[in-house]
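This entry is passed on directly below:
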Amino acid sequence: MKAVKPVASLSLDLDNKWSYLKTHGDPGWETFPSYLDIVVPRVLDFFKARNLTVTFFIVGQDAALKKNHEILRSIADAGHEIGNHSFHHEPWMHRYSPAQVATEIAVAEEHIERATSRKPSGFRGPGYSLSPVMLQELIRRGYRYDASTLPSLLAPLARAYYFTTTEFTIDQRRQRQALGGTLRDGLRPIRPYLWQLEKGGIVEIPVTTMPIFRIPIHQSYLMCLGVLSPALALGYFNAALRMCRLTGVRPSFLLHPTDFLGPDDTQDLPFLPGMTLPRDRKLDLVSEVIRRLADEFRVVTLQQHAQETAQIPDLRRVEPYFPNAMSPSNSPDEPTGLEPKER
């Protein structure tokens, strides 16, 4: 009898061009420049050719723009899961007050459902941003899972490098001081678990990092290695899959639009690692990575991954601890100063 493959989930954070420019502090993002019309059909064709159904995390601001409705609806029509990736896509969302968090998640949910006819049941914070306030609001709204944690010990180094790519103001640096997470965040569990709060719990599906070593293995990190050598990237990924199998980790693998885009598609994002690689070389690399993932694991959506996780007897329970995040008792109740734009 053929052995049943263990589960691995596959997701794509549909961060748009404007969101990268915004986080980088570049002017012009307020007009919401987009590459969705290029990348979404390319990605949908990619998954269709491999008979894969995955999770797309959509930014609410993109869903609020009518010009994006048709392209976003095509994702749902292709059978993929739709997740909530916040409204404003601010990686400092963990600093929001309870009122801000409630509005951010609810308004994003409303526009995403309107654009795709799918109500999200999963959430991923922008830039892996998460706080107890956010978890409480997800539980209150009936979300089935969160997928915002990235337990990586390299996050502070990656953030330090990112700060060298532009001249942030003092306020901008303060906003981004925990971008990507802290060393303590890097020690969070790699396997899925249950966040346990006073008013209930919610399944957490971390973005998988290399077991034991806690180094990223998501596609954008592989692209950085691919700049040096595709063979190095694939060898590293093979080692990561081997470690996952040996330690019993069921990986949650993450993609971004820039994994499918090269400088021949857009020249506005040179500060992002891997954006010097031509599109065709990137597509070759991501194709081989996903092939190897599917050879070793049964690839499913995050919703399916969360459902199977919830059925695990004695699932690990973790009480949230986020020293850099706002809590209900110390967070100011003030607006972000950014209102939803609809066109």
About this structure: The longest strand covers residues 7-13. Residues 3 and 268 are 47 Å apart (CA to CA). DSSP finds twelve helices and ten strands in the chain.
